[in-house]
Amino acid sequence: MTNSIEITFLGTSSAQPTPDRNTSSLALTIDGTSWLFDVGEATQHQILKVSNIKWGKIDRIFITHLHGDHVFGLPPLLCTATKNLTTTSSDTARHPIEIYGPSGLRKFLRQTLKLTRSFLGRDYMVHELLFPEDPVDHPDKKELYDFEQLGKNIQLQRSGENLYWEVIDGKSYKITAAPIKHSIPCLGYVFSENPLPGKIDIQVIKPILLRNKEALGIKNPMELVKKLQNGETLHLPDGTIIEPPPRRPGRKIVLLGDTYDPSGIIHLAMNADVLVHEATNALTSSDPPGTSYESVEEGAIRRGHSTARMAGKFAAQINAHKLILTHFSSRYRGCGSKIIEEIRMSAVETFGNDRVICAEDRLPNLFTQNIRKKSTQISTPFDAPPSVMYSPAFPTARPAEGDRSPTAGRTVNVSGNATIGYRRLWSILNANKIRQEVRRGRYYEKPTIRRKRIRREISEARFKEAIKKKVNTVLQMKARLVNGQ
Ligand SMILES: [Zn+2]
């Protein structure tokens, strides 16, 4: 199971950089390993300015399409990312950096690196996601660049009406992609985590296991919690049956390339926790008086792009939980400015809720493990039907003779939220703080300092809670004394 997922935007401008925004790139950091999605020019400079992406930890790079503002940063980034890994370093023995993208990416990289005689400290390979009409690149060994290993040619697959590429099928997650419409072949990626073990309320289960300790004949009956978490049903000697908690759906993050119509990815993107969608244009107060929304949308579509309203509409269509807008036209200056808020509000209008954020460059830790789903899920042929996922069975069992404990012989539902662990509390506070800061359009506090501050706030909160508990106990004791018990 993956613990922390962070999205860091490294470039949020379209076509050309502005003083505040670089060209397209973002990093998805999963348990410390970073994957880049698009690498606009000077992405490497952006990485130098953030603390949560380490050169040696960039393992995979995904490209949505071959427009320059999405790939011009790739060759130099590869050189920098691998430069300190000398031939004697154990890092070079590692798996090559894997790069995924549309047809032509392999040639672009091979030619650029060859012509510039670039030296890499680690091998790379490009897996091309091919449309049926794309040529298949079959180079012989001599044609490959010195540091290149031949990647896979991944063919587009069809399931009914739906088209998709199966990109990675990992142990705890899966990456798929589907074509979306832009002025050139373009695709969107979907990261989906496998279902997570359900939550177990230890306070419910502990007394049940402890009272069966002797009959079970094991030293520590709490070991059985692990079995429960793995989905096993426990049949205890006193007749109690403990059903495992229902598995929780994993997190889903949808990262789209440039598009004026992403409907081709709907079948993979349903119920996304986070949708990253371009919003190149919007009708704002900076437009000449009398400009109609229709004319703005028509212009955006003509150039292969979307307006913020279109992004909001799509987010609603796939029942997304959170929408992040990016790829803003260089006309819209500033971060957290009035114009950017206008863009956000136009997406809020069509999305139908306020969970819309306009991305900013280098805003780290935007989303961590607290990415959670809405309770309402719309079922799609690609998801397990919700009714199966959410309905635990409650068969009853006969209590053992003479056992009077209230749960004996019952089937016990152990899923619950009774205690909030330190990590969970931390992530909630952290996310709320960041959200507030983003809303106000300002940010900056070094991540290390922020972490310390939030930790302090948590310990204060816990201290207050402990005092409250003590006071309550004393009051109860007092009441009992008064009642003469
Ligand atoms: Zn483009």
Automatic annotation (TrEMBL):
<keyword id="KW-0689">Ribosomal protein</keyword>
<protein>
    <submittedName>
        <fullName>1167_t:CDS:1</fullName>
    </submittedName>
</protein>
<keyword id="KW-0819">tRNA processing</keyword>
<dbReference type="InterPro" id="IPR001911">
    <property type="entry name" value="Ribosomal_bS21"/>
</dbReference>
<keyword id="KW-0540">Nuclease</keyword>
<keyword id="KW-0255">Endonuclease</keyword>
<dbReference type="GO" id="GO:0006412">
    <property type="term" value="P:translation"/>
</dbReference>
<dbReference type="InterPro" id="IPR036866">
    <property type="entry name" value="RibonucZ/Hydroxyglut_hydro"/>
</dbReference>
<feature type="domain" description="Metallo-beta-lactamase">
    <location>
        <begin position="22"/>
        <end position="305"/>
    </location>
</feature>
<keyword id="KW-0687">Ribonucleoprotein</keyword>
<dbReference type="GO" id="GO:0042781">
    <property type="term" value="F:3'-tRNA processing endoribonuclease activity"/>
</dbReference>
<dbReference type="GO" id="GO:0003735">
    <property type="term" value="F:structural constituent of ribosome"/>
</dbReference>
<dbReference type="GO" id="GO:1990904">
    <property type="term" value="C:ribonucleoprotein complex"/>
</dbReference>
<comment type="subunit">
    <text>Homodimer.</text>
</comment>
<comment type="similarity">
    <text>Belongs to the bacterial ribosomal protein bS21 family.</text>
</comment>
<keyword id="KW-0479">Metal-binding</keyword>
<dbReference type="Pfam" id="PF01165">
    <property type="entry name" value="Ribosomal_S21"/>
</dbReference>
<dbReference type="GO" id="GO:0005840">
    <property type="term" value="C:ribosome"/>
</dbReference>
<dbReference type="Pfam" id="PF23023">
    <property type="entry name" value="Anti-Pycsar_Apyc1"/>
</dbReference>
<dbReference type="InterPro" id="IPR001279">
    <property type="entry name" value="Metallo-B-lactamas"/>
</dbReference>
<keyword id="KW-0378">Hydrolase</keyword>
<dbReference type="InterPro" id="IPR013471">
    <property type="entry name" value="RNase_Z/BN"/>
</dbReference>
<dbReference type="GO" id="GO:0005634">
    <property type="term" value="C:nucleus"/>
</dbReference>
<dbReference type="GO" id="GO:0046872">
    <property type="term" value="F:metal ion binding"/>
</dbReference>
<keyword id="KW-0862">Zinc</keyword>
